[in-house]
Design a protein that fits this description.
The complex is a heterodimer of chains A (about 475) and B (about 300). Chain A is mainly alpha-helical. Helices cover about 60% and strands about 0% of the residues of chain A. Chain A is built from 24 helices and three strands. Chain A has a three-stranded antiparallel beta sheet with strand order 1-3-2. Chain A starts with a helix and ends with a helix. With about 300 residues, chain B is of the alpha+beta class. In chain B, about 30% of the residues lie in helices and about 15% in strands. Chain B contains seven helices and nine strands. Chain B has a five-stranded mixed beta sheet with strand order 3-9-8-5-6, with no helix packed on it. Chain B has a four-stranded mixed beta sheet with strand order 2-1-4-7, with no helix packed on it. In chain B, α2 packs across α7, α5 runs antiparallel to α7 and α6 crosses α7. Chain B starts with a helix and ends in a 7-residue tail after the last helix. Classes of the chains: A mainly alpha (about 475), B alpha+beta (about 300). At the A-B interface, α4 and α10 of A face α1 and β4 of B.
Amino acid sequence: MKLDVVEAHARPAARAPASVRDWPGVDLLRRVPGLRALLRWRPLQFWLMWFNLAVFAVFLYAGLFGSPVGSRNIIIVFVWILWWFLLIALLVPLLSRFWCTMCPLPSAGEWLQRLRFIGVREGAGPGRQRTRMFGMNLEWPKPLRNIWLQNAGFLCLACCSALLVTRPVVSTVVLGGMIVLAVALSLVFRQRAFCMYLCPVSGFLSLYAMSAATAVRVRDAELCRRHMEKECLFGSREGYGCPWYQYVGTMTRNNYCGMCFECLKTCPHDNVTVYLRPMFSDTHLKGVDEAFKAFIMTVLALAYSVTLLGPWGTVKDWANGPESGQWGHFALYSAGIVVICLGVFPGLHLLASWVGRRIAGMEASLRDVFVRYAYAWVPVGLFAWIAFSVPLIAVNGAYILSSLSDPLGRGWDLAGTAGVAWHPIVPDRVAYVQVPLLLAGLWFALRTTWSLAQRLYPDARRAISSVLPTWTLATGVTAVFVFFFVG
Amino acid sequence: MRTGLHEVLAGAAVLAAVVVPPLALHRGPAADRGPARVVSLTGVKKDGAWTDEVVDGTNYWRKTFRSATPVLRRGEEVVLRLASADVRHGFYAPELGLGPVSIDPGKVVELRFRPETAGEYTYYCTEVCGACHFGMRGVIKVVEPGTQAETTAAASCDHAQPDASAAPPPVGVARGARIFRQRGCFHCHGEGGSGGVHNHNYLAGNVPQNNLIAEKMGLFEPEDAQKAIDLLVGRTDLDAVAEPPFRNWPRFVAQTKAIHALILNGNPAGRKDPAGPQPPLSMPSWRYLLSDGEVDDTIAYLISQYPWKDD
């Protein structure tokens, strides 16, 4: 049977694996009473989105009409301090892309496409969909079926981060703009095109979801292969076909599963479940675009550590160029970040891959080695981001309580916590948390790339030769992080 | 039908989610201040202003704010709500007995008072908050009940700032002039140091006039003043000068060193009445903002501003 959507959107390596998982997992839907019923309950996603939409409305209003001071405006404090910490340090490592389940950004677009908030609109839809969809329902252009646009978008936002995370109105414009873009794209393209190919947040979620301790998978891949109706893909009266263009029957990675649980609702054989599994169980990057996402995220963790936490006032001034009118310095700062993200760091990784391949033997292509070992930067980058976020929440956490009572910074005291004075929490001990985190990231990187090397070179000596330069680079980068955080 | 009802209810819930929270925030919590008249002033660093306008994300970056001139009736009860739109400011209206109080962003300080005497009362910012700090003041007018008074807005800080696109002038008197404007010295000492503003309960009454320092230095001839300027902008070590170039050389050297130290170290204004309030304006320290060369250029500029008479 030809699965047109899968054929169109899945990456080649994702086709028909022998097994959808090669890791030990606990079937949570069988273990946790009530969880299956909860995840199959159609209104669940609606109410999660609804709650976040209401919160988001507060944020957007506060960004426009609240205090221009970032630390006194709830949009800055809750989005860039609290949400970011919860997302990167807890939600992604534990629950994969569960944020996408409740993200308010694409909610309006999705409701508009379906012309339903909760229910299913049965009928012939675009392609082989069995649910009707409003809008043009065009397919996303083939050359753009990758995460390069997300990489570019995230890099652009990162260059302007000094403004984004300090000026409430800029945050409102960017986040509000993303809602408008998501709605516009939902009227033109099929399903979650914005989330899949454009959303800058989705880009790094897709990368770091590989680390997650939970995963949506099928219990029996053979059952899916034999089952012809593919409701998980094309929808049924129980739910919609996968809005993320994924076929759960062959899905081996978390990257592009938005955890909407539509497949769980539509599967007539109850073959879809949520597994609890070891961290970093997904170990394959499947394209240069994903490898570059790993480079970009690692470099940005470093750049933010230098800019926001470092003692170098000049770097802060350059990053803050748009506010001070020093556009030349800002251009230099941005260009520096872009060159390191897209040139210097990938160049170092390419060199390490090239040296490893030269030492170990030339059977594997340089591209294969380059992409395969780029996985090292997934754990290194993720734990560097967590290590970066720890002082962020420890130092600025007090603002969360005061913003809760005074979301607009107008001197209100709604919950009696406005008077909480700024007080950093154990700033002198943060390094004791950061260093183990960085070392954990390095350990996961070494362990996973060793496993990848063994698959590439069955001979242990050649395997270790091939991966040794990448290990050296990963260790060096981790040492640089330790220097910045502790030195 | 049941599905339809669910969808309608869900739609209503979505509408409520996007409308109700902003509306609730827009209204804000009710505050009971009794019959008192409420006057709100918000400190804005970038413009050096205490504005009575609402300052938020939509206007802070694009609008130029000016200090407000609240007009009050003698004898009425007033609640002055003070807020900051950006950094810590200090509010002080010594003649009305208000402050000094620090105003942090996100915190509102309310001062309740009843003006008993008609007049014009200057208010100040007492925390060095930015480049426009020294001009951050305005006037509260108190009028007799039943009379009208004009509410005039103060000048904005834009007038104080030199053209940012202009290339920095070379060392010398021109740079001293630029510093005198850019650092806001003229706000207290007057244009070209020509006359200081009133400083409540200050020993000398007004902030010292600067353009007469040539006289204090013993520079009684324009030629001597020019030589002194040349020495200062030429970075000459005054202690190493073997042959005094003009009369009153020791006096000039001592005065130059004293003024230089005063600029670097600052000096709190002395009280005329020791039991009275602290004068609102004091000489700040420029030690970490100006180099020795910049201080010398500024002194040279002030020497050049002496109003020589033709005879």
